[in-house]
Design brief:
The protein is mainly alpha-helical. It is built from five helices and no strands. The chain has helices spanning 10-23, 27-39, 42-53, 66-74, 78-82. The chain is elongated, with a radius of gyration of 26 Å.
């Protein structure tokens, strides 16, 4: 665990203080819980994001043929120079 410091408005601090008393926990625990809920999506969330992202450029027509581009790069003489 790492330590960090946050600057909170007075009204937000008071809200967190009251809620922490009601929940019988610390303000720090409330902040960690809120940050986890907001920013930690877990494995399922990351998988969903990757599925949504995969193939996003598959139907683009403005891009050159990537297979031809790679073949041109592979025709270079670098490998021969290394051997």
């Amino acid at each position: 665990m790492r330590r960090t410091q946050l600057y909170l408005d007075d009204d937000l601090w008071e809200t967190l203080r009251i809620r922490s008393q009601q929940a019988e926990t610390s303000v720090s625990d409330l902040a960690r819980q809120a940050l986890r809920e907001k920013y930690s999506t877990g494995l399922a969330g990351r998988q969903q994001a990757m599925r949504a992202f995969a193939g996003i450029w598959k139907d683009r027509t403005d891009l050159a043929d990537s297979e031809a581009y790679v073949r041109v790069l592979r025709k270079g003489s670098r490998l021969k120079r290394l051997l």
